[in-house]
Amino acid sequence: MNLHRKGRAALVLALVAVVGMAFRVSWNALRDIAGAVGADGTAAMLYPFVVDGLMALALIATLVLADRDRTFALRVLGAYTVASLVLNYVHGLVPELHGRTVDWGRLADWDPANWALVLLATSLPVGSIYFGSDLVAKVLHHRPAPIPSTATNADESTETTMKRSTADLPVSTPAPITPNVTVLPRPVAVGFLKSTLPAKPSPSIAPAPGAPIERRAVAAESTRPRRATGRVPAVAKSSRPRRTPDQLLAEAREATADWPDAKVTAEGIRRAVRTSPVNARALRDTLRAERAGAAA
Taking Cα atoms as reference points, which of 181, 177, 175 lies closest to residue 193? Predict the structure, then answer.
């Protein structure tokens, strides 16, 4: 990394040296041209800064700006480069400019060419004021586009996924298995499914026992005397009697009668009949088996 920085610094220094030498070479030509169009000694000495200086400013703006602003800076750089080239070319063609013996306002023998050259030389200072101000304003108001952080997006998406309920995710709900027997609270006739393929009969499958509903152990009431803080109010005690597995199954059937198959989940049954997660899963399996048997 340190070597890379040194290489870039050396490249920038070399560019500055080349630009400085090129500016010195172009100095005499632009100074003599300025004197030929009526500039005094001080103005003629500052004239090269007007042309070549704006070229350097446009080059810096090109490196900073983007899109249409960069295109504008490139056009300004190209226009002033061509203008400086033309004025240096005229300086080389007219020997009188070297000794400053040429008449004022006379850069060429042909009048149309002379008028065009005088217009070019005198308009460059005004153009430097306009284009230079515009480029500086664009650079000062330029705001680089922000780089989106992939790490932040990944953290947000992970957090959102973790906050979702596992009972509501489609992955947590397995595809319903079509059994051959319907589990009911009282003995019923067992009906076997018929295969939809007429060429291959379905083999008989032994009926699978239904998952029993787990009974939770109830803690015995303590015989120790209560504290002096007072008894629990009657309204705070649950007045709902303990339900048997058959009663739970009947309530689950009634609550999920109009539910679609995709909505019959353990979490939905647990909230509907207000039972434990273990009983809710057993009720879910039983209800799905009943629906599969009814559909067959």
Answer: 181
CA–CA separation, 245 and 251 (whole Å)? 10
DSSP, residue by residue, 181-197: S---SS-----PPPPS-
Higher-pLDDT residue of 197 and 23 is 23
CA dist 82 and 11 (Å) reads 25
Question: Residue 183: which region, alpha, beta or left (left: phi > 0; alpha: psi -120 to 50)?
Answer: beta
- Which tokens sit at 163? 């906050």
Provide the b/e sequence for 67-78 (b: ≥16 CB within 10 Å): eebbebbeebbe
Residue 295, amino acid: A
272-293, pLDDT tens digit by residue?
A: 888 888 888 888 888 888 888 8
- Residue 117: Cβ within 10 Å count: 21
End-to-end CA distance of the chain: 72
Q: What pLDDT, on the 0 to 100 scale, is given for residue 259?
A: 85
Indicate yes or no: pTM above 0.85.
Answer: no
pLDDT at position 141 is: 87
DSSP of 148-168, one letter per residue? PPHHHHHHHHHHHHHHS-TTT
